[in-house]
Structure formats: structure tokens, C-alpha cells
Amino acid sequence: MLGDYPKERELDGVYTRVEREGKRFTLCFTDMTVEEQQEFLNRLDVEGLHRMCLILAGSLRALGDRLDFVNDED
């Protein structure tokens, strides 16, 4: 088994190729380690970062809608 990586949940729909321990994987952004996420974000231009924010916001909204979750912490 490969190292200690986040559980693959495929929550956001933003896929990219990641190399882990010499093997290549296609993973969702939210299934990557923080280091892998940072490397991915560093390759994006401003327009790409804006698209990422909108995609992640949509994914978060859909998850909240599906679970009928409201953050009511004051």
C-alpha cells in the first residue's frame, strides 16, 4: 500500500495526474495531500485559480445541499 494519503472521495471533480512513490495516479484536488495541492495550484494562472474557486464553491454547495447542512456556529 502506498504511504499515508487522504482517503479518495472524489468530491470536487477537478482531476489531475499525481506521482506517488514512482507511480502515476489521477486524483481529485481534494484527494491530494496539501503538498500535492500546492504544487498543482502553483501551475495555475489567475484565471485558473478563479475557476478552481468557483468549482470548489459549487462542490461545497452541492455537498451541503445533499446533506441539508447549515453551519450555524456563532
Features:
single chain, 74 residues, alpha+beta, two-stranded antiparallel sheet, 2 strands, 42% helix
Please give a structural write-up.
- With about 70 residues, the chain is an alpha+beta fold.
- The chain has one domain.
- The chain is about 40% helix and about 15% strand.
- The chain contains two helices and two strands.
- The protein has helices spanning about 35-40, 45-65, and strands at about 15-20, 25-30.
- A two-stranded antiparallel sheet has the order 1-2.
- A hairpin with a 2-residue loop joins strand 1 (about 15-20) and strand 2 (about 25-30).
- The radius of gyration is 14 Å and the shape is globular.
- The termini are far apart.
In short, what is this structure?
The chain is α+β, with helices and mostly antiparallel strands. It has helices spanning 34-42, 46-67, and strands spanning 15-20, 23-28. The radius of gyration is 14 Å and the shape is globular.
